[in-house]
């Protein structure tokens, strides 16, 4: 004769084998709640399934956030709208609907140092993680250094794939850097391969007319890159002093 204890043990073993963590931890407690509330079998099973689904979704979000490699988590709610002298708030808030991600478009934040470009770019990436998109965050110089090292090690194809595949690539701090021709060509490869294949967010303190200085003064390469990047893009202009310097300014 099968006892209740042996049945519970058998069920626990099966749930553990199936890796149904929530059901394993909660099936006994929910069974008691179901009995007190007079749930039928379907309602009890639905409660277990809902809990398991919620747990898996939360774990999936956390996994995407970890894989994104954000330097620090930022949200739109944390942004200090009163600091920039000029910013199109409605435009920025509309971007957080993430229509541009589904359309494989681009977002470019332009402004001087410290006006919140990285904050908003990170917050967009974080929002994309919450909505189920795979995201990769990296600074431009980090990308160049990674790809140069990969090329020397004969692993360039795999390294490029790491930046091409994510639904959203956040490329931070694209500005005047000591990027030589090799680095400029590698950045161009990434952005070209992502054209109409994935969404890209870029921050820069350089106006578009000065981007040739970023890409080793190669006007042809820069023109080709901007042609692809801006075909499906929204440019957000932010004006104002550096937020990080505000305490010194106020003294």
From TrEMBL:
A Pfam family hit: IstB_IS21
UniProt domain AAA+ ATPase: residue ranges: 103-239
Keywords: ATP-binding, Nucleotide-binding
InterPro entries in UniProt: AAA+_ATPase, DNAC/IstB-like, IstB, IstB_ATP-bd, P-loop_NTPase
SMART domains documented for this protein: AAA
Matching Gene3D superfamilies: P-loop containing nucleotide triphosphate hydrolases
Family listed: Belongs to the IS21/IS1162 putative ATP-binding protein family.
Name listed for the protein in its UniProt record: Chromosomal replication initiator protein DnaA
Natural source organism: Thiorhodovibrio winogradskyi
Taxonomy of the source species: Bacteria, Pseudomonadati, Pseudomonadota, Gammaproteobacteria, Chromatiales
